[in-house]
Task: structure prediction
Amino acid sequence: MSGDELVMFAILVVGIVAIATVQILRRRLQVRRRMARDAMTLRLAERFGDADAFVDFARSPEGRALMENEYAPAAMAHRILGLLQFGIIACAIGAAFLVNGVAPPPGTDINFVREADNARWWGWLTIGLGVGLMIASGVSAYVARRWRVLGE
Result:
């Protein structure tokens, strides 16, 4: 492996480790939040004493806001918007690759020609990824509305 390939491989490994670390920390935060919410719900149930008073509270707007979980309509909408945002970003990066991959003038060194070909290849691949993510967000939004997951 040449020096450039070694550097790119190291960047790839660091990126994978960083993404995995962020996901692990995010999952731990979700678990802590869920445990705290469950403990609070148990304390509320003990404080109310009987089931009827607790059910009345849980049906009130304040109770619903308190009991709302990560699958609430707002959380689902944020996930769908995240897909759309990432799709738009991927399309923009792909367009940048395509601009970078403009064919060099005739007589240019073959290495520059190959770099332009690689940039075009990555550009179309990234644009395809972005379009796929935007289609996935549209289908997800359609299905979520159809199943009434996003609310009324």
Notes: Residues 145 and 152 are 8 Å apart (CA to CA).
